[in-house]
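User: For documentation purposes, I need each entry recorded in a consistent format: the amino acid sequence on its own, followed directly by the corresponding structure tokens. There are two entries in this batch. Please keep commentary to a minimum and don't merge the entries.

Assistant: Recorded as requested. Entry 1:
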Amino acid sequence: MSRLSLSFVSLFLASLLATSAVFGQGVLLVIDPSPPVPLPRPIILPRPQPEPVMSYKIKELSVQARLVDQVARVLVTQSFVNTGSRQMEVAFVFPLPYDGAVDQLTFMVDGKEYPGKLLSADEARGIYESYIRRNQDPALLEWIGTGMFRTSVFPVPPGAERSVSLRYNQLLRKDGTLTDFLFPLSTARYTSTPVEKVALRVSIESGAELTSVYSPTHSVQIERPGGHQAVVTYERQNEVPTNDFRLFFDVSPGDVGASVISYRPESGEDGYFLLLASPRTQPASTERPAKNVVCVFDRSGSMQGEKIQQAREALKSIINSLHEQDWFNIVAYDTQVESFRPELQPAGGDARQHALGFVAGLYAGGGTNIDGALKTVFAMLKDSPRPNYVIFLTDGQPTIGETNESKIVTASRERNQIHARLICVGVGYDVNSRLLDRLAAGNWGQSEFVRPNEDIQQRVTRLYDRMSAPVMTDVAVDFAFDAIRTEDGAPINRTYPQQLTDLFQGEQLVMVGRYRTPGLAKVTIRGTLAGQVHSFDFPAQLTESSPDETYGFVEKLWAMRRVGDLIDQLDLHGRNEELIKELVGLSTKHGILTPYTSFLADDQAPVGQLADARRGGAWSLERSREALAGLDRAEGEAGFAQRALKAQFKNAAQAPAEIAADEGVPVAGAAQVFHADRDQAEATDAVRQLGNTALYRRGNRLVTSDAARWNLEELNDKLKVIERFSPEYFELVRQNSPANNRALALQAPGEELLLETAGELVLVR
């Protein structure tokens, strides 16, 4: 009997030339015939767990990657600790993609190199299946079908810490001008506790000038030291990684670089596209475009104390950041409205210093005359070649002058004849959040919400920094196709963001939408650049059908934004049965929980109700209608939380969006349940996100959202039942889609799994 115990997870590699994001991931297994040793998981949410005989934890995971054009050189360093009472004999297993696009792979343990062996996919399958049968743990099913690199055995005594490193080179996948880097970070979820530190640093060096740099999976920090370089960083503490890390960079030519990714899982239905557009880091014209900026400052009595101090510092920061060619003004309001100057002032003169003195003299007191402040602002903005930005800050509701919400919104639209961008910043729970949303929507702007414990200065300064350097203004995007028939309808539909305005230096446009017509299209981006109207066009290939889920995240990102738009329409325009039905259907399919679909996380509800929700049936519609009544609350903690969450969905740049819970850590894709009444989110093990679908817990049964399309109560007697770890079980694994195998990998002891495969409903128990 072998003492071989592979027990560690997470040094690995992913080749993007593979057809699925699960390929190329590594893991340490414990292979010990007596007793079985399942892979460790942190027990954060209640679920059946066997008592481990051996266990370990990953202490730190560090990834350093250097991407030079299409080649990645990656160094992974990881420290782990044997938290059990027995010595572990471990070997590192590293699943490879089918095409083996990895070379110069070395593996070190505390500075000592260990030899390895490359195994074919068939040899690797035998090892995986043997481990799964012996340990009754299906966690490795998602890697079935890949080759394997395996090291020799090395010991880890009880309580000992080992530092391991993996170095490899990788040829990156390239699609047109877009290069794709994938690192399978999610294998680090196999650890007895959350990872104390996860840190990634990816440097990009390109022979051609970089335009867009974008991660669809993680909220990263991006630095652009030059036109041909970028540094991308991501760092978290005490986290259980649940998503693989993915990064794109673009080298398309022109002052505005753009690329399109498409995904069409069903050839008979509309596909999904993602458009990335970004101005060059150093535009051909070195002259910064001028702009008009008006800061509107709430100095009502509720702003007393630390709030007004922070707001004053934010105003000073904006004034000091103005460029010489900008024009500006300040409007302060309480019961009365006061302007720094009657007209806009040039930032290049002595007005800047006088403005700082004006800000220093602001104090809090009086009511909140929102309508009067907006009237003053729009009266001083005249038509000019410069774009106009209004930063409107308030922490309350209108109490002076016009107080009717609809009349304030209507009046602002009528007064804003020059299409000024109104950026509304709501501070604290007392703000009328719906009013700010309506003002922003009607005035080519956006809303931002600052919670009571957040720093106003930091949020407002960061907001202004984003919009401080407009490169292209009045942006529009068009798709042109050959031979479009009128009867086929619009070839492009439901695009988000719906309202485009400007492209800013260092930022990028992330647009998603659906397309009805596949094939070659010409995409044209128009706008004003350096004072002149310009247009840029480039080709885009919208796929006829997608053979795998390589670009499946595009659908999920679209669904996130569509959910935000549906909530927005229901909030601003009243309840609509069709919109509610679509909201419930999208939430059920993708596991995107909102305060209005949180009933999906009820693990005690009958299984049949999932099918009702997927179809938008009467029961689910009624539950959503009741919850949507919460949108009638325009102020208070609940009103604030609902609009802040809606904005997160509408502006989502990652799929799934990283909306952090205040308590608990999501495990293996666990969804978030949002509680508007207390402005809080928490992880739930009752709903799991699996790529573009979801997995629901109902008692001891897990149900995939695809299976939820079936009327389960009618089909229970027609189910095909398969016992776990039987020969039929592994035959199902061989025939399954990667998504279904990921669902099987999450099935815990004592649970049943209901899934749809090849048009058949299967119960695994």
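Entry 2:
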Amino acid sequence: MTSEVTRAENNPWAVATYAPTNAAAAAAVPRGDMPGHDLSIATLLRILLEWRWLILSLVVVGLAGAAILTLLTTPLYRSQATLEANPPTVEIMEEGNGTARSQSPDNWNFISTQVGLLGSRSLAQRVAQDLNLASNPAFVDQSLPAATRIKVAAGKVAGGLTVDAPEEGQLIGISYVSDSPALAAEIVNGFADSFIRSNLERRYEASDYARTFLERQIVKTRADLERSERQLVGYAQSQGIINTGSPAGGNSGDVASLQGASLVALNNALAEATTRRIAAEGAYRGARAAGNTVDVNTSTQAMRQAKAALEAEYQEKRTLMKPEHPDMLSLRSRIEELDRQMRIETAQVVGGRSNTLLAEYQAAAAAERALQARVGGLKGSVLNLRGRSIQYTILQREVDTNRTLYDALLQRYKEIGVAGGIGTNLISIVDRGEVPGAPYSPNLLFNLLIGFGLSLAAGLGLAVALEFINDTIKTRDDVRNKLGLACLGAIPKRSGKGSFVEDLKDPTSSVSEAYSAVIGSLRLSTEAGTPKTLLISSTQPNEGKSSTALALAQNFARLGKTVLLIDGDMRKPTFKAANNKQGLTPLLTTAEPVRDHVVMTQYQNLWLMPCGPIPPNPADLLASGRFQSILAEASEHFDVVIVDGPPVLGLADGPSLAAVCNGTLLVVEAARTRTPAVVGAINRLEASGAYVIGALLTKAAERSGSFGYGYEPYRYGVGKQDHQILMIPHQGDA
């Protein structure tokens, strides 16, 4: 913040004041947007240290409660058994090769079903009955009725059982919890045995029901088959229908009868006769067309060879002789004779072959006509039989249906008869339950861990809750975040014996070191350095403002500055002088010079202006404007003027003093002053036009090195004062 120095030109006692040049900077800082509680690691550690005894107490109570609860809890024993579930397999025929393969159904559905059956109410009742637990006085109150005892025993058996379904595999774990180790083992084994027996009984009952049902169906189907067969035979006798077989498939009724069989045979013979007739006719007509070339060639082969030899000879001699030559004429005559003989031989061969083929053709045609006549006669008979066989076919179909159903029922009955035996059980015992040697509950270590965890969480939660409910200023971060002010320092609590004044005398004490750090912060609080006139105030009494005023005055004096400490709390003053007639009150009511009311203290460079007589109207005196001229006059002779003012809330004195001082330092007692009260005090100061340079945290719980700190606060309004500065006779001007 920028400031300017102003002086009254004609007044030698005029004071150099620091007036903010930026009006907005002097205005109250809006604190509604200040961040709230921040649960950072540092904050949690601070809460943990501050409330450590509460947390430790709750942890001790939690551990003690867990130990007591463990000792008072009845020991419980748990016995465990393991069962193996084997899903049934079914045979599936492979297409194409006709081989069978085994396939299991959905294992998970089967195992889930078994787990549900193990936890069923009926199984619990069966176990209670098998073990006669209703008559066990250690298990059920024997004064109850018998029916009630059975229900109670079944309920206790079901309540203590735990079934562990496997995530994978086929092993099912069961366990039972009881206050008796022997009873726990007995009941868990009873569950395993009863479950296996009930499983076998269910399978036997299911197969027995199926057998009974199939037996009734077989008897009924057999009667239906016998009735349909008698009807079929009776109808065949009445209609004269004779079947020679029972061919399968198609319209086979005609073929199975005698007429049908004869018609089929004649049809086959007719087809063969037709084939023979066609072959004979073809041979006959071919022979006539081709002239039986093969037979003719065979019979005339020698003649043709002789003719060929004569023709060759004729052609050979023709080159030498004329055709009219006698030898040539003789050869020609012999060739012509051979031609004549060949024609005669050919005619004989062709005539004989044609007669034979004709005879065969005529015989085949006659046989064909005879068979056609027979077939035509049988067609009418077969058609008549077909009309009479319609009812016969219906009856035959009913017989076939009943026979097929009867055979299927017989086959299924045989299969159930085989599968209905004991066979392989689907459930088997892997591990039987044993008598436990030690209780599994209560677990002391586990209970202690639970108690420790719950109590620690409760302690931390309660500490955080109390921390947030107790909305006070505790740390430097609270000053910055909640108040929106710079924290100029944190004064630790005193530790050990002695007084606050003695700590100030020792420059190496933690309190003295902390106030020295505040002096350094004050030098940087404004652009002009340390404010010339500084008001020390607080929100409420007993926050350490007077101690702070004294400590700052002494530290400035040690630095060689002339310091005037004004006791501005005219309601309950802290600092006294030997002469009660000197002080601030007489100056406010008179025009006397400041030097007449300033006394030297035992500290070098430190002077005191006490309060003097307590006035009846302090607020009116401070509002008159006289105090501003007093500060102006004092500022001419002293390097630093420190005013120890009254608390802000509830009094009008503090804002009046702050309005005429260059800066106001607000003292806040850590972990005591609530945030709304401090914010209200800051708003009142800023509303009066005061410049609040920052806040100082006193009696803070922070640590420095390996020691803590603290001191006894002075009490506002108490007659005895903790800090008194003895007046030394004034010599010369201050």
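Summary note for entry 2:
The domain at 487-700 is CATH 3.40.50.300 (Rossmann fold).
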